[in-house]
Design goal:
With 214 residues, the protein is of the alpha/beta class. Helix content is 51%, strand content 15%. It has a 5-stranded parallel beta sheet, sandwiched between helices. α7 links the parallel β4 and β5. The longest helix is centred in the N-terminal third of the chain and has 21 residues. The N and C termini lie far apart (42 Å). The relative contact order is 0.15.
């Protein structure tokens, strides 16, 4: 027998009120869940055609990519050349791709295994388009993209739309970020800034690029 509508409404209202009270007294649960919502974790394949480093947080991502290369996950590691910033144009700092190549070399990855795409790129979407054109032109069909953990869900979403519609299988390797993964991100400045920025970018991508093919 179905409960009368007023009873059903009261039950739903009670549940909603209980949830609001719970979150009001334990907001860290909601904050933790949102941090996890920005992350994508998956089992990586034993072998792919290439590892591709997404730019933005060069040291942890490049180090993780080097580890995957040493495991034999792919024969080559690639990245796009970023758009030059004012600091780079003034000669005060090297471009991210140059830094990444130096890290790969230091970690034992041969220069012959490293590919830098012409670029320039200025966003994750740009990198997805560059990777799709590069892989498609060389007959590569399975790529492992390396990025930071808090950037991995948005990356997986946009990479899947751009590359999988062209027959390229996408895997995302999430490099751990201590400020987000191993402590309450809302209690340290670095974690707060990272999650806030990624939240804004996630909302922007979901609205701006929602019409991209799945």
């Amino acid at each position: 027998m179905t409960a009368p509508r007023p009873v059903r409404f009261s039950l739903l209202a009670g549940v909603a009120l209980g949830l609001c009270v719970y979150l009001a007294y334990r907001p860290h649960h909601l904050l933790r869940l949102w941090g996890e919502r920005l992350q994508h974790w998956e089992q990586l394949p034993a072998r792919a055609d290439a590892v591709f480093i997404l730019l933005g947080e060069v040291l942890p991502r490049t180090a993780y990519a080097a580890a995957l290369m040493r495991e034999g996950r792919a024969p080559i590691v690639a990245m796009a050349r970023p758009e030059s910033s004012a600091v780079v144009r003034l000669g005060l700092a090297p471009p991210e791709d140059v830094i990444a190549c130096g890290i790969l070399s230091t970690l034992g990855i041969a220069d012959s295994c490293v590919v830098v795409l012409p670029g320039p790129v200025a966003s994750t979407l740009d990198e997805a388009e560059a990777a799709a054109a590069w892989a498609g032109g060389r007959g590569l069909r399975r790529l492992i993209f390396v990025t930071s953990s808090y950037h991995s869900a948005r990356s997986r979403w946009i990479l899947g739309r751009v590359l999988e519609s062209r027959g390229i299988v996408v895997h995302v390797a999430a490099a751990p970020v201590p400020e987000v993964d191993y402590q309450p991100w809302w209690q340290n400045e670095d974690g707060l800034v990272r999650v806030f920025n990624e939240t804004v970018k996630t909302l922007f991508y979901r609205i701006r690029y929602r019409r991209l093919p799945c």
